[in-house]
């Protein structure tokens, strides 16, 4: 059986169908994030290996952290892949930079340099 917590939101009784569902979904997601952050804080503050005990302080601290957005959102896999691509192509750019006495070295330098710049910018903007 799933744990349930009934939350009253003043003014929500006037919402209809999809709007009410969206509010319920948002409150549920916020609650899950709040509980997850409170459990993380509790595990940091726990001095022994005993059972976990989330306290009022943990929940209040987690709420402050979430409300002030002190936890940066995690980058998705595409952004992380772009950053890795930028890093690896940056290394390749350096290697090609040492091979500029050859034509293929100059071409490789410009191609990997462009890949580095484009993937770095896309990873930053993503």
Helix/sheet category? mainly alpha
Distance between the termini: 39 Å
Report the average pLDDT across residues.
86
Radius of gyration: 24 Å
Global outline: elongated
Strand content: under 5%
What's the main sheet like?
Answer: none
Fraction of residues in helix: 55-70%
- Number-wise, the strands total 0
Account of the 3D structure:
The chain has helices at residues 17-45, 56-67, 77-97, 103-125. It is mainly alpha-helical and 126 residues long. Helix 1 (17-45) crosses helix 2 (56-67) and helix 3 (77-97) packs antiparallel against helix 4 (103-125).
Topology:
Layout: H1 17-45, H2 56-67, H3 77-97, H4 103-125
Keywords:
single chain, mainly alpha, 126 residues
Provide a short characterization of the protein structure.
By secondary structure, the protein is mainly alpha-helical.
